[in-house]
Design goal:
The structure is a single chain. By secondary structure, the protein is mostly helical. It has one domain. The chain has 10 helices and no strands. About 10% of the residues have low confidence.
Length: about 260
């Protein structure tokens, strides 16, 4: 829960930083300081001339606030699952070298019971896969190979299910942004119908619509990038794990189990 709240807070800060910076760059940086002061003085008579990100969020009606809350949540969940993915997709977690060395040593000695005990003490995916194979050691190598393949498929599926949540966030965020754009355009035409064509009112509602689109893209672009990067890393680790597992179990073709 603490990680999730931290991710939501980081998401809100990222949104605020990105769009506040966008509002700042909307002013002409080449304009002299004296001209900016004069424009600011004139703006005091004409009304507020600067639109901040928080004005857009809370000025778009309760539907817009809900959409922005959903975007914040989507960004927070994306950050959370990306961090979780980096923790999950690590060689040291999936196939620790210490486990490989100990199992290899036990298998070279023909001590399958010792290899099973080593796997029982390790929570990694590779330990679960090897343990599934060792459980059928008396049934022949073909059964062992099939059991290992089934256990590997389960571990891979569980891994991908956790990574797929990043893809869900990356797909959901642009849809929320598009919905916010539609809502902003509805407000625009409603304003035209009630007040006529007023540039200031139309500019506000259109900017609200575009801000939500940009917000969705701010979430989606990094999320989809990290998703494919983590997925490719996971695929490489899975292929490597299959090669190492095949090398470890090859001695089971001729091994005999001796129970004390």
């Amino acid at each position: 829960m603490k990680k999730m709240m931290m991710a939501l807070a980081v998401s809100a800060l990222l949104f605020g930083a990105v769009f506040t910076a966008g509002s700042a760059y909307a002013q002409d940086p080449a304009q002299p300081a004296e001209a900016q002061v004069a424009n600011a003085a004139g703006a005091e008579d004409e009304g507020p001339g600067e639109t901040t990100f928080w004005m857009v969020v809370f000025g778009s009606g309760w539907v817009g606030v809900i959409l922005w809350a959903a975007l914040f949540a989507s960004g927070g969940f994306a950050i959370y699952f990306i961090i979780d993915g980096f923790i999950l997709v690590r060689p040291a977690k999936i196939m620790p070298q210490g486990l490989i060395d100990q199992v290899k040593e036990a298998m070279d000695q023909g001590d399958v019971m010792k290899a099973i005990e080593i796997c029982d003490q390790d929570p990694s995916s590779m330990a679960k896969i090897l343990k599934a194979g060792f459980a059928h050691v008396e049934e022949g190598f073909d059964v062992i190979d099939e059991a290992i393949g089934g256990a590997a498929d389960i571990e891979i599926e569980q891994m991908m299910q956790r990574l797929n949540w990043i893809s869900v966030c990356s797909a959901l965020a642009p849809m929320l942004g598009l919905l916010g754009t539609v809502q902003g355009m509805i407000l625009t035409f409603a304003t035209i119908a009630i007040q006529g064509v007023e540039i200031s009112s139309l500019s506000m509602t259109i900017s609200q619509a575009l801000y939500t689109t940009a917000g969705g893209l701010v979430v989606a672009i990094p999320a989809i990038t990290f998703f494919y990067a983590l997925r490719n890393t996971a695929n490489r680790l899975v292929l490597r794990m299959q090669v190492v597992t095949s090398d470890l179990i090859k001695n089971l073709r001729n091994v005999e189990v001796v129970e004390e």
